[in-house]
């Protein structure tokens, strides 16, 4: 008889319990998640990050110590988190801007574009002019004025509406205006307006294509448009050339090691050059002393040879051996001691 607090576990319930326990993991490796998490919506406030090689330069400055790989991981997380923000704003230099988003300053008391050619407004009272001004219009009136200012700064003539310069300026005004609108919406609602940021992304691709066409046709005009509109043109990498974290870390480590090796070699070279003239002069002095000592030893050996009679003093010219006698002796020896092989024929 089982007590009241005891409960009998049937085989079916036990199997279901064991399967439930098998799905439960308490290991430290799985507490972090099966896939790495990166915050892709990180805000970028440092304008230095607009440089496409910024993170590679920062990786080259990291000290080579026991925490180098950990620092590379942190730098990679920052790089991944900043990519979207930089992709949307870096080309227009909108990171930490002055508040105008690269758009021209307008006199908003001027009449809107639809009413600027009406002669009656020129003599109208100020109250009437104010009603028809840009400041009292809709946002599209302000956008149209920005478009015209940017287009007139780079287009070829007044009626130019099909050139590459016109298309680049027109798309630039839309990109910067939509970026301002997106940040205004985000200030009220933290959620990013995807319907608007997607349009900015498409317009960035369209402007990049127009810039590439202009660069191929006229380099001077391409540089002028970039300078007037304050655009930074960077050729994007193809997807197959974008490095993963492991490849990027290995490449950064390899460059860092090579740079450290070159630095140490340069330090050793500079250290070797210190006092080089004094060292070379001392070495030359020692070599000259050794040469003099060698000449004295050779002279003493020559004097000893003359005293012993193995050498004649005051010989003029160069001694030549007795070639004829030596050759005759060699021939005589070959005749006396040379034996023919059994298969060798005699020609005597």
Task: Explain how this protein is built.
- The chain is an all-alpha fold and 348 residues long.
- It has a domain at 91-233.
- Helices cover 59% and strands 0% of the residues.
- It is built from twelve helices and no strands.
- The chain has helices at 11-22, 28-31, 54-61, 68-89, 126-131, 139-154, 164-188, 194-217, 219-229, 245-273, 276-308, 323-337.
- Helix 4 (68-89) crosses helix 10, helix 7 (164-188) runs antiparallel to helix 8 and helix 8 (194-217) packs antiparallel against helix 9.
- The protein is elongated.
- The model is unreliable at 1-14 and 20-25 (pLDDT under 50).
- This is Mitochondrial ribosomal protein S15.
Q: Report the β-strand fraction as a percent range.
A: under 5%
Q: How many β-strands, per DSSP?
A: 0
Rg from C-alpha positions?
45 Å
Number of helices: 12
Question: Whole-Å distance between the termini?
Answer: 133 Å
In the predicted model, the low-confidence regions spanning at least 5 consecutive residues are 1-14, 20-25
Biggest sheet statistics: none
Shape: elongated
How would you summarize what this structure contains?
By secondary structure, this protein is mainly alpha-helical. It has helices at residues 11-22, 28-31, 54-61, 68-89, 126-131, 139-154, 164-188, 194-217, 219-229, 245-273, 276-308, 323-337.
